[in-house]
Amino acid sequence: MARDPVCGMYVDEEKATLMYTVDEITYYFCSKSCLLIFSKPEITYKRIKFFTYLSFSLGILVVILEYFISFNFLLPNLVWLLILSTPIQFGAGYYFYVGMKDAIKSKQANMDTLIAIGTTAAWLYSTIYTFQSLNILPVILPKSASGVYFTESSLIIAFILLGKLIEHNIRRRANKAISYLNELLPKKARVIRNGEEIEVPAEKVKKNEIVLVKPGEYTPVDGIIIEGFSTVDQSAITGESLPVDKRPGDFVYASTINKNGYLKIRALKIGKNTTISDVIEMVEKAILSRAPIQRLADKISSYFVPAVIAIAVFSFLFWYLVVGLPINFALLALISVLIIACPCALGIATPAAILIGASKSAQKGILIKGGEYLEKAYKIDTIVFDKTKTLTKGTIILKKIYTFEGYSEDEALKFASIAEKLSEHPFSKVLIDEAKKRNLEIPDPDKFEYFPGEGIKAVYNGHLILIGNRSLMEKNRINLTNITPILEGLEAEGNTVLILSIDSKLVSLFAITDEIRGEAKYVIDYLKNKGIKVVMITGDNNRVAAAIAKKLGIDEYYAEVKPQDKAEIIKELKKKGRVVAMVGDGINDAPALSIADIGIAIGAGSDIAKEAGGIILINNDLKSVIHAIEISKKTYSKIKQNLFWAFFYNVILIPIAAGALYPFFGIMLNPIFAAIAMASSSITVVTNSLTLNRYRFEYV
């Protein structure tokens, strides 16, 4: 079954007649009022505000006339009470009747059913009593009937609407993050077409067009700078507080602010494909998602309303027929049970916390795709980091070249670059860039073969070229004995060493290094101090892996891991009962990110990796791994608190509403207080969720 995203009630998809589709996702609703709240929140807010004021204005007059002043001008006092309370019952209470009607159509019961039955019972009893007292109707009610409950029916609706109004206000505050992001979406773009500079709507920019951005303007597309230099405020996307220097070759996001330079940008992502659009979509989906713990609330809600109606009817019959109390006392129990049991707090316990948590995270460039990831993050006890571009900066440099067999550095570099020319590996780019700096010619190889996790075999001008790691050399029977001390020394320093052989002769070693991120050591120390096991995976050999692990304080690592084997390591850790998060950025990390309990994708990585991740760090800051876990834990903690209070409230107060205190103290709960308590529970749940806004993204 689906869950109503507004009130949280269970909705049978097969029976449901009310639905709304956004971005190919269909949401189901228990009533038209919930559908209207979801699809047109501002219109609904204004209506609820109007009817809340109307209910209290007329309701206060009802209280005065019923309890303090007998007003008999032109008409009897009871008739004035009927006149004042009826607009509240059928005007302000219109939403509840519509909701009950929708529920009956769907052969289900919702919270509107409880409110409609409870208030109608009070109003109808009072109306019959009024007409019976005026001798307009024959005797319908028993002799035990006394007094009216116009105040109760009126103020119940007033207080419930007040609760909804406050809840709407809180939701609007919580949704400010999304509204703010929507406001950042650029409306116009300046592009060059047919040699002329023209202004077009931002969504009309075409891929690969050149976009001009002047100082102080918002960037309308995601793209690469091809000309110009500036500082760019990208805090809306990454959460960075300070502007970042940008120059040709750098990537810029849509909705970031060009501070002081004139930029020409080649559009790569446009319209709904930009990062800012992805952020908005993911946050909205996260807000409407549900954590697995919500299934408990859903299951209970599906049986809750029918059970409450049964308890209310039983209470009425027990006190009236068995105990023999007057009908108006028995009616109090029926109305109180129906009103106080309204499961609003139960329905919004999870969505309220997820809404605040997801919005808060998005403000700092952390996207949590849904409630299930919030719950899993709470249980994480193992985090696996890919090394390259995750624990390291990804700015790979060629540190040193060793040559043998009479080859010069330029000769060795040329052969290595020829072999690497058709490869997409980051190491290939380092060698080729160095060859270009030395003005070396790099023709295409005659033959090329790539061995994942090992290296490359190529043929050029009759020469067999091998470049890669020890495994590739050993498989091709290249003797490494003479260079082993040099090789081990370089690896012990944390360098990755590419070995080059030409025609089965070992001719060169290329020491390549990738700097460790400045924040990596802090992040790992923090996680370990929290009792979380940290594991590193790398394709480097054991010596390089050991050197990096030692620098970072990582006790467990896996070296010489081929891309296809990363997912297997995650599987093995999960088989041991570990709750595993995987942090990575590359295409080859995607399977492991998907298989892990939670995949955390670094934002600068590939789109495939980000698609596979449940949490995405757009800001590319490794510290955000800490923040993602902490905000997830705090959000999940709020969900548990909310559900506890929602259940606790119903378990404690339903028996009191049913009359449990009457045998001991002679007290029967007034339905007005039931309405106040019901509204207060919803407000308490959402207010508790709002305390998540106090979370600060700082070093802990």
Describe the structure.
The chain has a domain at 393-515: Calcium-transporting ATPase, cytoplasmic domain N, CATH 3.40.1110. The chain is 51% helix and 18% strand. It contains 26 helices and 26 strands. The strands form six sheets. It has a seven-stranded mixed beta sheet with strand order 14-26-25-24-15-22-23, sandwiched between helices. It is elongated. It starts with a strand and ends in a 10-residue tail after the last helix. The model has no long low-confidence stretch (mean pLDDT 79).
- Quickly give the structural class: alpha+beta
Helix content: 40-55%
Our measurement of the CA-to-CA distance between the termini, rounded to an integer number of angstroms, reads 41 Å
The CATH class label of the domain at 393-515 is Alpha Beta
Q: What's the mean pLDDT score?
A: 79
Query: Rg, please?
Result: 34 Å
Count all strands and give the number: 26
Task: Profile the largest sheet.
Answer: 7 strands, mixed
Q: Identify the overall geometry.
A: elongated
Tally the helices: what do you get? 26
Strand coverage percent: 15-25%
CATH superfamily of the domain at 393-515: Calcium-transporting ATPase, cytoplasmic domain N
Which second-level CATH architecture of the domain at 393-515 applies? 3-Layer(aba) Sandwich
Strand order of the largest sheet: 14-26-25-24-15-22-23
Residue stretches low in confidence (pLDDT < 50, at least 5 long) are: none
